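F.,

This is the one I mentioned.
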């Protein structure tokens, strides 16, 4: 009886050994499937990142991987933009044939400044600790030059459907007029400024995340 049990216990051994031969193969297949799923899920981000690297290399700029390198790639792209120099005080950088066009552009620019009374929207972002959100966003009114924010009674902010299409009415709190939120993507903010004398002005700003990579970039010594 003991001999029969010993033989029967010995029979499955070759099967177990055969299964062990397939374990490395199954592990390799699992990793391949996992990598394929990750690549598919982040295909758009990887494509954009690869395009940024290619443009940087085509421009002859070196590229290194590391913390803050996304910011370096972005700055490398922006350095290729045409550069315009500010004019010296009292100097006009235009010819006689451009005077009519400059007059038209100046009227448009001055009209915008007059309508908003030199009060505009600004925004700041920082990495968010809220799950599912990329950045905390602070959007607020700022005054340019001699603009007096004490003349502003308050403002209404409209952020769109992701905020329930609600209109956020914000009063002037000692010169602070704005709100904060969190978002996983950039969005457009429309604002109605209400002045104490009854005047109203509509302004808008695209609350982008373009400065995001710079927030984690290492500072360079001066």
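My design for it:
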């Amino acid at each position: 009886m003991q001999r029969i049990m010993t033989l029967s216990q010995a029979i499955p051994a070759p099967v177990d050994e055969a299964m062990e031969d397939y374990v490395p193969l199954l592990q390799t297949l699992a990793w391949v499937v996992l990598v394929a799923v990750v690549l598919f899920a982040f295909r758009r981000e990887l494509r954009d990142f690869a395009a940024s690297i290619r443009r940087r290399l085509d421009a002859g700029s070196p590229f290194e991987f590391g913390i803050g390198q996304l910011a370096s790639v972005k700055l490398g792209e922006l350095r290729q933009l045409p550069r315009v120099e500010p004019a010296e005080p009292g100097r006009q950088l235009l010819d006689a044939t451009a005077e009519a066009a400059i007059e038209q552009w100046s009227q448009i620019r001055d009209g915008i400044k007059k309508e908003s009374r030199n009060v505009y929207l600004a925004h700041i972002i920082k990495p968010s600790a809220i799950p599912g959100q990329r950045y905390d966003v602070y959007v607020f009114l700022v005054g340019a030059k001699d603009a007096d924010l004490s003349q502003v009674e308050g403002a209404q902010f409209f952020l769109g459907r992701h905020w329930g299409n609600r209109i956020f009415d914000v009063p002037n709190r000692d010169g602070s007029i704005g709100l904060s939120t969190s978002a996983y993507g950039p969005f457009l903010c429309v604002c109605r400024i209400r002045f104490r004398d009854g005047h109203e002005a509509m302004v808008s700003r695209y609350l982008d995340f373009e400065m995001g990579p710079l927030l984690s970039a290492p500072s360079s010594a001066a």
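The beta strands are 119-127, 135-143, 152-158, 167-171, 178-183, 187-195, 200-207.

Talk soon.
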